[in-house]
Specification:
globular; 2 domains; Dihydrodipicolinate Reductase, domain 2; 321 residues; nine-stranded mixed β-sheet; 32% helix; alpha/beta; Rossmann fold
């Protein structure tokens, strides 16, 4: 059945922490039919299947021929072989970030998807945060970006370093704002808890004159997901966690006067579900055959910069230690 003609038949491969929520959101969508969930752990598969009224599978190959689209929510090292097999079978994909572990793999998936006319969307979830989506509308001439993405230690996402785990979100957002790659990158990082860097700092400089300082840590004592953009006569602060955007400016526009001549205008997006919005957008892209917000090429650019940062950390004076 063509996705245009009816509900999109979808499966979720990997129903651990995040994949479970993928299944939950798909099950609630009128435009999607959750055909099955897949996990190598039978208990996880059975739990998700029971919760969302679908079939549990432990072998992803049993989805082939049964679905129009899948979410791949497994460890990063497993993304490429799974994605390649499903694209070759004519299945649309949403692959969690980072899309692959290297650029050659990313290029192969992009080429396959384009050759077969398939949607390849990558799960850069923060792009569906309404405060982040509103950021571009209030920018004039960005001069400096400061981004902090800090989390307490968890046992999720440690199959990759902190750059590919966390910083890549802010890299992707930054590239979407600049629409260009940086001319210069400098980075430092250190291993603290895991076998790969757990803290990282990078400075990126662009041809426009924009500079960006990105900090990521997965061993922080407090969570923080903050992006601040400085520009002539104003600066804009986005709190990704609370989904708020605040513009501080010297103007006579409406807003709270926090200092003489300085006003703050705050937008709050309290009712939001970025994951649901991301999956709705994916299903819509499949049904209408239009490019996703974050497709393979956009995700590849973020991956390219992230890998360059990770390489600099390894080659740096601390060697990622």
């Amino acid at each position: 059945m063509s996705p245009r003609a009816g509900r999109v038949r979808v499966g979720v491969i990997g129903v651990g922490y995040l994949g479970y929520f993928h299944a939950q959101k798909y099950a609630a969508l009128d435009e999607a039919e959750l055909v099955a969930v897949v996990d190598i752990d039978p208990k996880r598969a059975e739990r998700a299947a029971q919760d969302f009224g679908t079939r549990p599978l432990t072998d992803y190959r049993r989805l082939l021929g049964q679905v129009d689209a899948v979410s791949i929510v497994v460890p990063t090292q497993e993304h490429f072989p799974l994605a390649q097999e499903f694209l070759e079978a004519g299945v649309h994909l949403l692959v969690e970030k980072p899309m692959t572990t290297d650029l050659a793999q990313a290029d192969r998936l992009i080429d396959l998807a384009e050759a077969k006319g398939l949607i390849l969307q990558v799960g850069h979830l923060e792009r569906f945060n309404p405060a982040v989506m509103a950021l571009k509308d209030v920018l004039t001439r960005p001069l400096l970006v400061e981004a902090q993405r800090l989390t307490p230690f968890q046992n999720r996402g440690t199959d990759v370093d902190v750059v590919l785990d966390l910083m890549i979100h802010d890299i992707d957002i930054l590239l979407s704002l600049t629409e260009s790659l940086p001319l210069q990158v400098r980075a430092l990082g250190a291993r603290i808890v895991t076998d790969s860097p757990d803290v990282a700092h990078a400075r990126l400089e662009f041809a426009s004159g924009l500079a960006a300082n990105l900090t990521a840590s997965r061993i922080s004592g407090r969570p923080c997901r903050q992006i601040t953009v400085f520009q002539p006569d104003s600066h804009v602060s986005v709190d990704c966690a609370s989904r708020t955007l605040t513009v501080f400016s010297r103007s006579d526009e409406a807003g709270e006067e926090i200092l003489p001549g300085i006003r703050a205008r705050r937008q709050s997006f309290e009712v939001a579900d970025p994951l649901a919005d991301e999956l709705v957008a994916f299903i819509k892209a499949v049904r209408l055959n239009h490019p996703p917000l974050v497709g393979g090429r956009e995700a590849r650019q973020a991956l390219e910069v992230a890998l360059h940062i990770a390489d600099q950390i390894e080659r740096g004076p601390l060697g990622g230690r």
